[in-house]
Amino acid sequence: MPKETLLKQYRLCKRCLERYVSTGKPSRPCYICQGLMDNLGAIANNILAAIKDFEFDTFLIGATLSTQLYEREDTMRARLKIRGRESIKHYLTRELGMRLTRLTRKQVEYGKPDITITLTVDKENNVNVAVISRPLAFAGVYIKKSRGLPQKQDRCASCGGKGCNSCNYSGLSGYDSVEGIIANELVQITRGQTPKFTWLGSEDQSSLVLGSGRPFYVRVFNPKKRKLKNKTIKDSGIKAMLNVINYIPVIQPHFTVQTKIHIRCKNALTKRILKKLNSLSGSKVSFENKSKIGVKNIHSVRVRQLDSNQFTLTIVADGGLMIKQLVGGEEFMKPNISEILGMKCECLMFDILDVQIQ
C-alpha cells in the first residue's frame, strides 16, 4: 500500500502509518489511535507505578481497547483492502513490553508470567492499569499440641470469603483456628489475598495433632512478595512449617493416619468382648458419602482398656476415615465398633498421632 494513498485518504501518526507502510511523516491527529501512540512513554510510567510493589521476574501485558478504535482501524483496512498487517492492539502491547523489559530488566512470559498487566483504554484514550500476580502455592504440615483450637475458620460475613477490607483480604471471620493463624501470617508475608487451603484430612476442635504433623496445601492469590524462604509459624499451641512449591497436585495423594480414639460404651466391657475388635485389623470399612459408597482400609488396631466401660483404640487407617461414624455406626458405616461389640459406643475424643503420605 503506497503511503501517498494512505495519507491522501487518512491522517495517520507515524506509528500507525509504520504498521502499513515502511516510512512516513507523522500527521495529527491520527485517524486510528487519536493520539494514543504518542503517549507510550506516559503509559509505561503508569505501568511502572502500578507494579512497583510487586516482586516478579516475568510479566505479560494485555490490553482492552475501545470499540471505536477497533472500528476505525477495521474501516480503513476494509476500504483499502489491507490484510496481514499487525493490529494496533498487538503493536501497543509489544511496544510496551519491550519498553518494560528495558526499564525493569524483566522478561516477557506468555505461559505462566509472575504478573499480568492489563490495560483498559476508553474512547477518550484514558488508560487504566491493573496488575494481577500469579498465585503462590505452599505445601505445609502443622502440629497442634493444645486442645480447643478448630482446624477451619468461618468465612467473612461481609464478603463470603472473597476478601475485603473488613477481613484484611483474608476472606476469614477471624484468626482463632489453625486455618486463621496460618492464613493471617501468609497474608502478611506475601501481602496477598484470600488463602485457600486443601487439607489432607481433618480432626475435631478437641483433638491433638502430633507426630510429623498433618499435611496441607495452600494457595495465596495476588501476592506482592513471592521470593520467600521456608516459613515456620508458631502460635496458640500450633506449629506450622511451610515451603513454596510450583503447583498443588490436582489429585490428593494417598495417606494413612494413626489415630488414638477414646471410646465409652453403654455396657460393661470384658477382655473377651474387646478382643472382637481385632477383626478390624486388615478389614475394609464401607460407608455412604454424598449418596456414594466409599471404602477405607484399616491396617492395624491396638486396644487398651481404661475401666469397666471405657477403652482406647489406636488404629492405622486410610486417610479420610470418619472416626465418630466408625465408633457409632452412623452414615451406614460397616463394620463399626458398636456393631462389633454389640452395644452402643460413643467417641469421647480422638487424637491424630501421625500422618504419612504414601
List keywords for this structure.
358 residues; VC0802-like; Alpha-Beta Plaits; 3 domains; 14 strands; 23% helix
CATH architecture of the largest domain: 2-Layer Sandwich
Q: How is the largest sheet built, in terms of strand order?
A: 6-7-5-9-8
Helix segment tally:
9
Largest sheet: 5 strands, antiparallel
The CATH C-level class name of the largest domain? Alpha Beta
Give unreliable regions as ranges: none
CATH topology of the largest domain: Alpha-Beta Plaits
Distance between the termini: 66 Å
Principal-axis shape equals elongated
Structural class: alpha+beta
Order of helices and strands: HHHEHHEEEEHEEEEEHEEEHHE
Tell me how many strands there are. Answer: 14
Describe this protein's structure.
By secondary structure, the protein is α+β, with helices and mostly antiparallel strands. Helix 3 crosses helix 5 (88-104). Strand 3 (115-121) and strand 4 (127-133) form a beta hairpin. The strands form three sheets. The protein has a five-stranded antiparallel sheet with strand order 6-7-5-9-8. It has a five-stranded antiparallel sheet with strand order 11-12-13-10-14. Strands 2-1-3-4 form a four-stranded mixed sheet. It folds into three domains: 39-133, 2-Layer Sandwich (VC0802-like); 136-245, 2-Layer Sandwich (Alpha-Beta Plaits), CATH 3.30.70; 255-357, Alpha-Beta Plaits. It is elongated and about 105 Å long. The chain is built from nine helices and 14 strands.
